[in-house]
Amino acid sequence: MDEEKKYSFQTGERNTFGVVDYVLFGLLLCVSAGIGMFYAIKDRRRQNIKDFLLAGGNMSAIPVALSLLASFMSAITLLGTPSEMYTYTTMYWWIGLGYFFTIGAAAHIYMPVFYRLRVTSAYQYLEMRFGSPTRSLVSIIYVVQMVLYMSIVLYAPSLAMNAGKAY
């Protein structure tokens, strides 16, 4: 193998997985799968939408907030935010300020309407308001947007990791 491909900045040689690394990685995957299997078996009697989508309506705000935060984090956010802050300095903070106003507006304008109508998603509301064809069209648009977004979210970190291999 080429000597250039073996180089690592920290050790001066190519880093590869060893036996301990594979065992720990496999253990991590087994524990994650085990947690999913445990709750799938434990909650298999829950059959209604409220239990499935809303956890029975009895979750506190902290796990819901952490779940939303984790769903909005991506490798692009982790790679791009420091670069944006470095390039545009404190101007990037205005985006964060805009988020607070948007969250407040959504919480006081949209959420009360959804709560009173007892809908579990914006798609259900669109079907109630405009009919099934509108819900289907918006769902298709969302799927296309997410496919494009996920391709970028997966491609950008792979470029960054590939650039790191060149050294």
Automatic annotation (TrEMBL):
Protein's membrane topology: Multi-pass membrane protein
- Say which domain of life the source belongs to: Eukaryota
Q: Which Gene3D superfamilies match?
A: Sodium/glucose cotransporter (1.20.1730.10)
Residue ranges annotated as transmembrane are 22-41, 53-79, 91-115, 136-157
PANTHER family per the record?
Answer: SODIUM-COUPLED MONOCARBOXYLATE TRANSPORTER, SODIUM_IODIDE COTRANSPORTER-LIKE
Family label? Belongs to the sodium:solute symporter (SSF) (TC 2.A.21) family.
Instruction: Provide the protein name.
Output: Sodium-dependent multivitamin transporter
